Amino acid sequence: MSQRSTNLVEPHIPAPRRGEVTAWRVLVVENNAAEAEALVRALKRHGHEVDSVTSGGAALQSYADADLVLIDLELPDLDGLEVCRGIRSTCDVPVIAVTARGSELDRVLGLQAGADDYLVKPYGFRELMARMEAVMRRVRTPEPAERVVSHGPLRIDAGSREVTLHGRPVDVTRKEFDLLYMLASNPDTVIPRKRLIHQIWGDSWSRRTVDTHVSSLRNKLGGSGWIVTVRGVGFRFGGEGG
Known about the structure:
Blueprint: E1 8-9, E2 25-29, H1 33-45, E3 49-53, H2 56-62, E4 68-71, H3 80-88, E5 95-99, H4 104-112, E6 117-120, E7 123-124, H5 125-139, E8 148-151, E9 154-157, E10 162-165, E11 168-170, H6 174-184, E12 191-192, H7 193-201, H8 209-221, E13 227-230, E14 234-237
Helix pairs in contact: 2-3, 6-8
């Protein structure tokens, strides 16, 4: 695709072989239909699962299940910086700003708003992929020593990062998996909220971070008993729905 029709410069890059690349769930927030189409096509060709939205409001409704967000700061309803702040106020999903705003001040404001990286249009797809991989390396959680944790009908596989309940897959986000695995690996221990925040979210957190993820996990597991709140302390794993 020519650079005149889109800001994505996409040279011919052979699609990776199966197993050569880690697949991520990527949310593309882009108002320009041609640019969004080119980016989505390129990412899917490289094995990623991609959703695309065209507005800031839609982005704030869609980012929770993404492993990484690519956002244009020029959106029709909300300023992209506000969207970045909104995402960062509730979770630490990696965000890369992909925008035509190229001044030093724009870059500083983007990073201060919560973007993990900043890429100015036009850009090459190879550079975008390299930046995505670098960001994901920084946030990747070390692989646990015990690869599979099972409690009754619940099975948590750290190798494949998959959760199943009664043999059926449970679709969880990256941080939801980390939280559930940590609690389930210590079933008889009340884990303080501060420890959960430090080990799973690092410095990127808000007061609602843990509560939001716990609530989401309870809904996905079909009951509040799986994760028990210990008031004033933290949480513990309930086991088989409590």
